[in-house]
Amino acid sequence: MADDATTVAALRARVAGFVRERDWEKYHRPKNLASAISVEAAELLELFQWRSDSEPVDAELKARVEDELADVVIYCLSAANTMDIDLSDAVLRKVGRNEARYPAKEWRGRARGASLEG
Amino acid sequence: MADDATTVAALRARVAGFVRERDWEKYHRPKNLASAISVEAAELLELFQWRSDSEPVDAELKARVEDELADVVIYCLSAANTMDIDLSDAVLRKVGRNEARYPAKEWRGRARGASLEG
Amino acid sequence: MADDATTVAALRARVAGFVRERDWEKYHRPKNLASAISVEAAELLELFQWRSDSEPVDAELKARVEDELADVVIYCLSAANTMDIDLSDAVLRKVGRNEARYPAKEWRGRARGASLEG
Amino acid sequence: MADDATTVAALRARVAGFVRERDWEKYHRPKNLASAISVEAAELLELFQWRSDSEPVDAELKARVEDELADVVIYCLSAANTMDIDLSDAVLRKVGRNEARYPAKEWRGRARGASLEG
Question: ipTM above 0.90?
Fold first, then answer.
């Protein structure tokens, strides 16, 4: 699996190269990237909007999810590049904060009002 | 920088552990995660909604962006776990498709209608 | 019910007055309003993100939905004011197009791929 | 202008009729509608994502904005129908709360942290 062998930095570099080769830095300003992440997130959501919770994810849907999820992540990587943000550090620190905020003992099995992002 | 040394799999494992310890898998079904990604993306966008393009990102804003960007990415990682999606593979394949779709020679400096996600 | 007696123009005028009294027109440019509509839409979505399809909407949730739905609509009204768009005309024409695109005879009871917005 | 002569109830009735004729009520449950509103809001945002604040809205863009704005509003109207919410009442009450929260004297010309939705 590529995820086992690919660092976040490697993905950021690939995206940075793509942007640079096309001189698209001027489009990749923070506000535009924030908009793009929302737009792509909605394209992912659209795949599920009329489905019920219980419908399984078949191979066709999974392929489309991979495509839209990639789009969201690509723009997140570009945002990290543009604003010089260490994504791994930000993610790990946030998970740590959530672990303290939602101790497993108290929150096992229940999540009303709770979430991964706190 | 943590991004240089952290694989996507390592981040996924951290998020998976957080979810498992709390028995939150039942909340992390695909449709809910797609909703969560959109919700977090909008919280990131909200940081910019009244700002003009030209306002710089100061240290305070950058810290808030890191926090919201982490939230988006955390849910993307959880979605990859839930649906068994290799994020690096999906991202690299998509960038490759976009490289072919937007050859640098033709698209340098212009992007009307073009985007990273194609 | 206020909806029976309130024209869209009356709602637009109320919102326009609010904006004008505060000299907030400079914030209510099209791109900012488009961002605001997305941000508010996500706050509405957030009320449902961990719920299952079958959970009923109780009085407490309904009150919160009213609040967030109002926010979305308020920004849509402001966008109509800013860009001089007749909302009723746009809505009625779109429903008409969808009626032609999804004839009731063929589409009764099924909607995979179909939607209100077409 | 149609907005001068069209009540919110009239628009709601048109949307309700469209849904009923197709037996689409089962798709128009609250959570699905909340998702749809977000999806449509993002399609509206997409029209602006690579534009700068200063680019004017030409006739072509305005036509596309009308179309996407109609989609957002149509789903808001359906949500009001599904959850028996008086939209005009909700909007007017919210504007009233915001008028009290952001007195014109104090907030004229400045909005950092302030917004229409409070």
Answer: yes
